[in-house]
Fold:
Amino acid sequence: DQYRVVATLRVGSGGLVNTPAGSNVVIDARTGARGGQAATLAVLPRGYNGDSRSAVNAGAGAAYGVSGRGVRVGVVEGNPFAHDSLAGRVVLRNGGLNAAPAGEHRSEHSLAVAGIIAARSGDAQARGIAPDATIYSSAMATWGSGFDLLNDLRRQGVRIVNMSFGFEPNQRAGDFGATRISQFVTSNPGITVVASAGNSGVPRGNSSTIGSPAVSGNVLAVGAVNRDFTARAGFSSYSRGGVGRRPDIVAPGEYILAPGARDGDGNGQDDEFRRSFIGTDFDRFQGRDISTGPISGTSFAAPFVTGMVALLHDLASRQPQGHDADSTDSRVMRAVVMNTATTQNVRRSGGGAWSQDTTIYRMEGHEGRTTLGVDRSCDEQLGAGLLNVGRAIQMFSRAELRGADDANERHMRIDVTGGAAVPNVPMFWDRQAVAGATQADGVGMVEYMLGQANHGWHFRSTMAWIDHTSLVNDQLVSQYSRLQLSLYMEGPDEGNTGGFDPANPDADLLITATFEMSGTVRMLDMVLPETGTYYLLVTNQSQVPLFGGAPVYGISAYIPAPGVAGVLALAGMTVARRRRR
Structure:
């Protein structure tokens, strides 16, 4: 009763029998008296939509002329089987340990992951997110060191690494543990690591079911949504508390159409796509291995995000006037991908809407007024929301707001509006540095002047940075920066200084701010409560990092602007929907 018939065909001595799609029946499929004839049964779970690529707006890549061309993507697990859809675009890297013939260390799992990233197909629902990307595959079994594996991929020019595997929260993960992965990204901030959140489901109490490598704050951790893309998949891991608050984002993860390695239809070609893969769950059919297991798991959600990042890399290479060498920094990639995620049509597995954890605070110096404090930026089950390829490309197609990334002075001001009375840029992204807080003149800050906006307009901004982890006296040591994001409205007093005035901090109205103590992501998402002139403030409330100078962050924001098609329609958020305590 959990399945519905899509189509059936029975060939035998009794002739041809068809069963209506959508019906609930038991099919007795058998060969006929003449022999050599087979029965085919196509069934899918109830509620299955099947349109996973459209669910994340993957077709937008072609609309913007990007396909992952020239982008090298690392896949770390086993090696994919050969498949026509990836022909000539899979490079196998072998560390020399347990060296074996090319046909070994291959898995259907790896093929499915590689195919979701980069398969070429005439069927839009079988096509990879970045169908022209090249896969660099490293089978873990052939490497003595995960660090050597990752550095080999770096030397090959790989700038995105997909890790569709994981360890239990308390399991030793070696070089793929959170600290070691953080160390790798610290040394290579231009490489974006995407990791599957895990399939351990609901955590007990205030704990987490996410292990390494996804628990690292320096990676994009990806959870899964269900078969009709409306809610978190029941198996998808998440965290209710602790430093490893995850996932960062969710993507389709149930019954995904992906390349299949076995020649199930007997046509002698590796050209098939299935919603299943060979693994421990398979069956025998006419002497051929045919999987009966659904292709479900966060393993298959992660490559959706990996393919998305590959498209952004492709886009950056085509726009040299607006994207410099640091445009594809992992901090920028995380900020853009997360900030453009969809929240209005995806819910928690229990039915609740996407929300942030917030607290209402009274504003000192403004009697009777309150501000919304964000205690947790991302929804505990859904992260920033459901991946949206089209919106991310639209955001990143714009030039970086400020090409120079050297805002080391105490108070840096950046005008988003270009001096106009109202914002003329509905969205922006930026890579920037913010001065440390150890100097005598107070907290370092970068200020984004947004201009005038009206009551009811939607605003969303996401900032991401790296926790620095390096070897100090042969010991791995981490330095955790504490950056915060605040949204202000200019105060009503005549003669009030535009923007934030450290000498008069209560002159303006604090609308909302993050108050988190851990993690590497901050997000503000709200409907503006009043008409006024707004600015966004990044503050560094931490010490100067031990292993570098001023902390560098990536930031992405929607700027509420009148007459900009789609911005308000995509919002779908109201303050009333937030959970308050």
Remarks:
- The radius of gyration is 25 Å.
- Residues 20 and 282 are 27 Å apart (CA to CA).
- The first helix runs from residue 52 to 55.
